[in-house]
Amino acid sequence: MQWAAFGAGIGAALSAIAAGYGIGKIASTACESIARQPEAAADIRGTTVLTAAFIEGVCLFSVVVSLLIVLNLNGWFMSAKVLG
To answer: Fewer CB in 10 Å around end: N or C, the chain?
Structure first.
């Protein structure tokens, strides 16, 4: 049971690290693109924000799944009858 909680924590941490790296890469590419084509700054900015939101959504989903795994290991769902 302890290894499952450890695995859930590692999964959440790796997801957050990957999301941070991805958003950083998007931001650096957007800055380079705006420097090359300043007239397209509005389009690039909109695409950057949308892509970053999708990455954050995936990260949030994985953190929630990890949290659900840990709470289910502790018997919280079954004792509180949250799931039915």
So the answer is: C
Q: What are the pLDDT tens digits along the chain (84 aa)?
A: 678 888 888 989 999 999 999 999 999 999 999 999 999 999 999 999 999 999 999 999 998 988 888 888 777 665 555 555
Predicted TM-score (pTM) of this structure:
0.75
Q: Where are the domains of the chain?
A: 2-80
- Long-range interactions of 53-56: CB distance < 8 A, separation 24+: 55/19, 55/22, 55/23, 55/26, 56/19, 56/23
